[in-house]
Specification:
Layout: E1 2-7, E2 11-12, E3 17-18, H1 20-31, H2 33-36, E4 40-43, H3 47-60, E5 65-66, E6 76-77, H4 83-88, E7 102-103, H5 109-114, H6 128-131, H7 135-152, E8 155-157, E9 163-165, E10 172-177, H8 179-190, H9 195-200, E11 208-217, E12 220-230, H10 232-237
Parallel strand pairs: 1-10, 4-5, 4-10
Antiparallel strand pairs: 1-11, 2-3, 6-7, 8-9, 9-12, 11-12
């Protein structure tokens, strides 16, 4: 089995659509989509992902299956429930001193470093962030949907990143979605904490990440990454990668977000 995770193009989040740059990125991706051999195509229900996919679907003359659990990972943390979390999510505070619920995985690095349980394959589920958010039910809902889809192709999740192969397949499954949900799906495949890919990796817009099964034992598979965040299509088109999903490389650079 082969999996492709494709992030949407440069986003305009307010209308949930692509910017003009995002549309150029999606066109560059569509120009090489046949070479990717995308196979069975699945899409997030959100507009920016569906618009990105549509550029490729127009070339392929195919349709995508929309999966609700492929939306950007929506877990939110209630910062006001714990003074400790106010240090982890300072951007959740309003100018008047009130706090908003915040994306559960958008954590300040210093807090993450001080809480190694977040990087543990099991202990992240008992973390303060998990206790004061809908992180666990949201994660488990995604895992249920992803597990069900892979099982329908013959690959059944066991433990510690191992899958039972009930039926071999060389099919490709392509997911047009988002960085956050892609990181969560990787954590499910590898049975690791989702905070590892969420904090340590970044998929830029329209990037392609390729995963394949490796079956060294009969009936047993694991998933290995062949490439991560590939932007060859943008390089070919002369299109500069977007900064979306990234933060400042150096703190004094005020041209990009904190």
């Amino acid at each position: 089995m082969r999996l492709l995770f494709i992030r949407h193009g440069d986003p305009d989040y307010e209308p949930d659509a692509l910017t003009e740059k995002g549309r150029r990125e999606a066109e560059a991706l569509a120009a090489i989509i046949r070479d990717l051999k995308p196979g069975h195509i699945y899409s997030s229900p959100l507009g920016r992902a569906r618009e990105t996919a549509q550029h490729c679907l127009n070339v392929l003359k195919e349709e995508a299956v929309v999966m609700p659990w492929l939306e950007e990972f929506p877990a939110r943390v209630d910062v006001e429930e714990s003074p400790e979390l106010m240090r982890a999510f300072p951007k959740a505070q309003n100018e008047d001193g009130t706090w908003n619920k915040h994306i559960a995985w958008d954590i300040m690095p210093a807090y993450c470093a001080a809480h190694p349980e977040l990087m543990d394959a099991r202990l992240w589920r008992t973390s303060t962030i998990a206790k004061h958010s809908d992180l666990l039910p949201t994660y488990d809902r995604v895992r249920k949907g992803f597990d069900s889809l892979l099982a329908s192709y013959g690959y059944v999740r066991q433990e510690h990143g191992v899958y039972r192969v009930d039926r071999e397949t060389q099919d490709t499954l392509t997911f047009f979605c988002h960085f956050g949900i892609s990181a969560v799906l990787l954590s499910i495949l590898w049975d690791i904490s989702p905070f590892i890919p969420l904090q340590m990796m970044c998929m830029l817009t329209t990037s392609v990440t390729e995963i394949v099964t490796e079956e060294r034992e009969e009936g047993v598979a694991m998933f290995r990454m062949l490439r991560f965040g590939d932007l060859t299509h943008l390089n070919m088109a002369g299109e500069e990668p977007s900064f979306a999903a990234r933060y400042r490389e150096v703190y004094s650079d005020t041209t990009h977000r904190k």
